[in-house]
Amino acid sequence: MTPPKPPSPPPPPVPVPNPSTFDPTSSATHDSTCPFCTISKTYPPYDPSSPPPPSSRSISPSLTSPNPCTFMLLSTPVVIAFLDIMPLSPGHLLLCPRSHRPKLTDVTPEESAELGRYVRVLSAAVSRATGIRDWNVVQNNGAAAAQVVPHCHFHVIPRPELRDKRAERFTSTMFGRGQRDELDDEEGEALAAEIRRAVGEVLKEDEDKSEEEKRAKL
Amino acid sequence: MTPPKPPSPPPPPVPVPNPSTFDPTSSATHDSTCPFCTISKTYPPYDPSSPPPPSSRSISPSLTSPNPCTFMLLSTPVVIAFLDIMPLSPGHLLLCPRSHRPKLTDVTPEESAELGRYVRVLSAAVSRATGIRDWNVVQNNGAAAAQVVPHCHFHVIPRPELRDKRAERFTSTMFGRGQRDELDDEEGEALAAEIRRAVGEVLKEDEDKSEEEKRAKL
Lengths: 218, 218
What we know:
The structure is a homodimer. Chain A has helices spanning about 35-40, 110-130, 165-175, 185-215; strands at about 70-75, 80-85, 95, 135-140, 155-160. In chain A, helix 2 (about 110-130) crosses helix 4 (about 185-215). Chain A has one domain (about 35-215): HIT-like (HIT family, subunit A, 2-Layer Sandwich), CATH 3.30.428.10. By secondary structure, chain A is an alpha+beta fold. Chain A starts with about 35 loop residues before the first helix and ends with a helix. At the A-B interface, helix 2, strand 4 and helix 3 of A face helix 2, strand 4 and helix 3 of B. Chains A, B: Pfam families: HIT (PF01230).
């Protein structure tokens, strides 16, 4: 007897953005006071399966100056990801829709699928880049839920093994209390390059596996 | 000037499962010791945009007896959702892939997109059903990250406005410490029916909106 076979929908095409049509001055879907919209407006999309080299101007961390540096990890027409500037642990990153959406319920169905797809890819990538095998995914909606920036975002937070006291501090800090240290620029740049590379690697492995499965069905 | 237009992929077809082909005895993609696999094997898929009536045997909470009752909220060929039996707040629910996947990185790309899609739908539905406007989405991977059941699951946890002390207890309890009360069966049944209804409502609104946008483009 076989399990209930889900009808296999074809994998949606990997979006291959055309950076030359990107208009960084546009703000049609952005909120001018939102720091994540500033990032979204500054960094053009690129093909995540072959990220630009670390020296590329298109991902230069200082483009958001005088605001804090931005260490981009992913930039598609629909979603962006970057390192949290006040990380709870090495590799703590944020994934959000490119457009300004306050809560998860403001996101379109297509964006939500894309967020789901990339939160898995980024989880795998950050685990490879940091060597930390456990992690939390956290997405807060509204002030009572400790949302600080009102632009929907998923935290991916690596969880190194910690002893009791530090683990407790970690958990309470996750929801906005306690001390968080600022990201060091040099470390951020190296880590971001490693995560972008791992994202490309994961996407290629996914594609290879999907091709293999297609062949196996023939 | 216009913003970078993401290439609009067509919305994937809403899976309309055929419950008559569902084989509850199958365990090919399941782990026999996993409580979420027990739920997955017990409850057949249904069309989430028109959920079965509360009296339907196919969603009867006692089908998992002698294990705790299960209050199903969603059951597709790919994902299932149900009320947490030790809720942190009214409406606290879990969403997971139907197949046994220990961590988010074990999930297939297609499953991850489906999880992303439904975590938004369920967020909207639970907010409508409970009237609580703020909520957390939490997904833990591995023991160091407080994952208890090793079958990948997203928590959706409504956050009523709480005063300092209770809010603190809430946060620390979210990661596995402190007291959580058991779900009352009668309340669970009524709330689950309300959430299933709201899921159908949200999906229909999404579909209507998508149709509208298609017409506007013509």
